[in-house]
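Q: Sequence in, structure out?
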Amino acid sequence: MVKLSVIVPFYNVQQYAPDAIRSLRANAREDFEFILVDDCSTDGTKEILEQAERDLPGAVLIRRSENGVAAARNTGIDAARGEYLTFMDGDDWAAPGYFAQLLDSIEHLGCDFVRTDHVRCTGAQRTVHRVPFGPRNVVVPPRSVILPAERSTPVDYPYSWAGAYHRRLVDEGLLHMPEDLRTAEDRPWIWALHRKAKSFAVPDLLGIFYRRGVTSSLTQIGDTRQLDFIRSFDRVLAETAEDPEADRFLPKAVRTYCAIITHHLATIEKFEPQVARKLRSMSAAALRRMPQDLLNDTLNSMDLARASQLRRLRRRPSTAGEAAA
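A: Exactly. Output:
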């Protein structure tokens, strides 16, 4: 029986894929499987994965015909046989024995899912990023940690690879990601997970290494795909509005949406000029779509600089074509 399925999408990461494969080999176990998803790579990644299929214990290679990180993860979920599932990206790596510790943690805690801290790697710099939830090894209802609105909480920590998930979440339709979003696909996913799953915990565990600043990563590309964050958060707001406790959770969703808009505006120089104009227009339209009473409360509680920027943006005229997501 497969206890743990590790799902790893790869797309044009021939420089980093060998590190990822080596780390999987250092985590191999008879009851683990490593689902390697070739997401239409056009460089040497394909050959590296073909070699791994032959040499890596537990390797299962799947080749996709269309590119898309959410769809690649979903393809891995559909193929997974494990009682538990986790993820890793093809340009990241895990410490030796990390996945065994991760499995031990979620089995011992007996919850639907666990979230873990991670190490962010930018060049030679290493920084530890913590799940924004203080208690360790304590099982709680995930709905109970969505708030408060004014602080960072686990729904602001959307990384799918920073955790493990019981198979029942697949059966309940909570592990698949929206394939129509090219970026920020994990934001509706993490909100739905916390609103609908029954139990979660944060084990005292560190061992996944996230490589930041990879040039092929969508987070580094200033084209229209980055603007999918607007459709992503529109979905968060719409789905949260249907929750029985919408009045409690919507202020958090609105505040997070506003914070993400200001984040993208602060880095607007990375966008091509026409994309930057579209970012402003689409963000202005998004602000006008939000529940205005909640938006006003949010702006009144934010720092002056960001609040003033968003108020100016809300007044910005935009055509229907410019504002379309």
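The chain has a mean pLDDT of 94.
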